[in-house]
């Protein structure tokens, strides 16, 4: 039900769809939703909506839920206990929102989370202890926030299964990122970025130092081009399909336009060429006639 301008989803009929396991409502105008009616949900996609607030009642009774995409919304905070009922959740995408800080208890209950994407928010500081219950966390994405420093050692002590930390585009000192990269050899963690920079201050392509939030149009496109490896296999992405279809249609239209242009040029440029051809032939015929007259 993506791309339908839906503003309100919960009503008497939809709330009775208790058998739902997959709910995709991307690119609508939903500002609030209560999912607790759908106890069998496994996958929820709500990206590109107008959701500004979530709390524990939003996700009650969803013990089977494994995947949530809430990217590109208007969420500004995560109250403690918001996800406390989601004990089966393995993937949570909160990128491209307006989150400014993470509170102790914001990720309470996420004991099985493996991938957590907090990129492109407005987080200014990161207390690594907020992840103390994320014992299964393997990949943390915090690119393009306003974080000035991060305790990678402390983070790894808190989330002991963490193997990948993506943090490019933050105003973190390059020296600090170097120290983090060096930890890769000691503690087997990969320090990376969702976008590689080679023409700006960087460490192995990870943008660092004094950096402006969304400083270029290229970085703005990151909202639509997050590394596909961050998403679990087998999970559909309706937004990507729409973009690919749009690109294909645009390409076809451009090709038709180019064909029409060259056909127009060829058609109109051929007229003078025909005139020259007939003029030259006429001169040749006249020359032959004159030559014949002389011989006779």
TrEMBL record:
SUPFAM superfamilies assigned: L domain-like (SSF52058)
TM annotation in the entry: 243-265
SMART domains on file: LRR_TYP
Keywords: Leucine-rich repeat, Membrane, Repeat, Signal, Transmembrane, Transmembrane helix
PROSITE patterns assigned to the protein according to its UniProt record, in alphabetical order: LRR
Pfam families, sorted: LRR_8 (PF13855)
Protein known as: Uncharacterized protein
Organism listed in the record: Diatraea saccharalis
